[in-house]
């Protein structure tokens, strides 16, 4: 085994725990690894891939590893159990172990899944969430059709398939060096999970309409919403994080989208835009329980107390976003959670408090094996 790789794996795991206990308790694992590799540029691509893969896998199976490893529970001891033998993996089928231990999930979170889905379905979902995440692409139809991008990638021997549900998505059968492909540099496609594409597709904005993406982040959903508008009408993108909006600006420019405006906090246009929007999208921050494949560390940060904090924040954000909806407009509420407390129960609350009704049945998908992440999406309008 490569000693350099093992040393960096141990170092990365330890540093991540330190950051979680320090000033950045909610820093996601993928962002941490990006920063770690930027600080250790001498590691080549294969070393980085190995360290990243093992970091993710150790976080996925942390609970089960702790159960079969002699205390104290440390990353050094977990690594020893993980690498010395694969016998610990057989414990995933041990019927004598508690369900949450077998699937390596926190007891409180597994209990939430079990209460909502039943024991068998909860075990199935946890099994899927312990798989590596798939790489999905979204085609920019302003520049090229999905069929043409599919043909280009196939001609370059990139194993790719069309997504089953999203009309602009592609799935890679294995990871590729996508960032070096000319089609990526030209803005023909970006990496985006199919679930995010489906959420954005619920905002059926036509050319000339006005859209408020109230939790825009780095612009992933807006990049889906804008192309069918043909650069007519307008997409307003609000987020409290300036750095996210800075990234959104770069992505929108690369995609050739011009009909947008960034709205950081306290922007003078925000009060003037109230009651003007045909569509409002509230892609609310949540527990991310439908997307734990991408950041498996988040399941170990879960607590019921934090869940209720998310619920409270979602209600606050939705109420603020609703102020921008005009009469006859539609508001779309979405999460990447599988928990009823953040999804159907929230929609029931919104409809009762604000006099709304569902325009169409909600979309709710559990995470799929070798497929998209779990998500929830509901479209509402005023009575």
UniProtKB/TrEMBL annotation:
Entry annotation: catalytic residues: 336 (nucleophile)
PANTHER family: CHROMOSOME UNDETERMINED SCAFFOLD_82, WHOLE GENOME SHOTGUN SEQUENCE, NOP2 YEAST -RELATED NOL1/NOP2/FMU SUN DOMAIN-CONTAINING
Family designation: Belongs to the class I-like SAM-binding methyltransferase superfamily. RsmB/NOP family.
Protein name: SAM-dependent MTase RsmB/NOP-type domain-containing protein
Signal peptide region: none
Organism: Zooxanthella nutricula
SUPFAM superfamilies, alphabetized: S-adenosyl-L-methionine-dependent methyltransferases (SSF53335)
Entry binding sites for S-adenosyl-L-methionine: 239, 283
Cross-referenced InterPro entries: MeTrfase_RsmB-F_NOP2_cat (IPR049560), MeTrfase_RsmB-F_NOP2_dom (IPR001678), RCMT (IPR023267), RsmB-like_ferredoxin (IPR054728), SAM-dependent_MTases_sf (IPR029063)
A single Gene Ontology CC term: nucleolus
Taxonomy, superkingdom: Eukaryota
Location of the SAM-dependent MTase RsmB/NOP-type domain: 125-383
GO molecular function: RNA binding; rRNA (cytosine-C5-)-methyltransferase activity
UniProt keyword list: Methyltransferase, RNA-binding, S-adenosyl-L-methionine, Transferase
Pfam families (alphabetical): Methyltr_RsmB-F, RsmF-B_ferredox
GO BP of this protein: maturation of LSU-rRNA; rRNA base methylation
PROSITE patterns (alphabetical): SAM_MT_RSMB_NOP
């Amino acid at each position: 085994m490569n000693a350099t790789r093992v040393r960096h794996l141990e170092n990365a795991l330890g540093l991540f725990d330190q950051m979680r206990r320090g000033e950045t308790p909610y820093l996601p694992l993928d962002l941490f690894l990006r920063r770690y590799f930027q600080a250790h540029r001498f590691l080549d691509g294969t070393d980085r891939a190995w360290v990243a893969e093992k970091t993710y896998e150790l976080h996925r199976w942390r609970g089960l590893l702790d159960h079969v490893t002699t205390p104290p529970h440390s990353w050094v001891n977990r690594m020893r159990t993980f690498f010395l033998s694969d016998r610990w993996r057989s414990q995933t089928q041990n019927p004598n172990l508690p369900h949450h231990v077998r699937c390596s999930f926190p007891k409180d979170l597994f209990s939430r899944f079990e209460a909502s889905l039943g024991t068998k379905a909860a075990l199935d979902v946890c099994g899927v969430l312990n798989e590596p995440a798939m790489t999905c692409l979204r085609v920019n139809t302003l520049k090229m059709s999905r069929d043409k991008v599919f043909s280009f990638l196939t001609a370059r021997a990139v194993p790719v398939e069309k997504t089953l549900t999203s009309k602009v998505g592609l799935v890679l059968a294995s990871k590729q060096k996508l960032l070096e492909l000319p089609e990526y540099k030209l803005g023909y496609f970006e990496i985006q999970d199919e679930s995010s594409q489906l959420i954005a597709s619920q905002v059926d904005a036509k050319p000339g309409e006005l859209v408020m993406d109230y939790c825009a982040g780095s612009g992933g959903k807006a990049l889906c919403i804008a192309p069918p508008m043909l650069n007519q009408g307008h997409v307003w993108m609000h987020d409290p994080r300036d750095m996210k909006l800075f990234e959104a600006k770069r992505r929108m420019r690369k995609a050739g989208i011009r009909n947008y405006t960034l709205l950081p906090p306290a922007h003078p246009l925000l009060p003037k835009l109230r009651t003007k929007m045909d569509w409002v999208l509230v892609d609310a921050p949540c527990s991310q329980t439908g997307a734990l494949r991408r950041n498996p560390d988040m399941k170990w940060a879960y607590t019921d107390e934090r869940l209720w904090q998310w619920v409270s924040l979602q209600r606050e954000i939705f109420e603020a976003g609703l102020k921008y909806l005009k009469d006859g407009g539609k508001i779309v509420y979405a999460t990447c959670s599988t928990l009823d407390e953040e999804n159907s129960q929230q929609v029931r609350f919104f409809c009762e408090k604000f006099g709304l009704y569902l325009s169409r049945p909600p979309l709710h998908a559990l995470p799929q094996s070798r497929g998209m992440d779990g998500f929830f999406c509901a479209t509402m309008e005023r009575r």
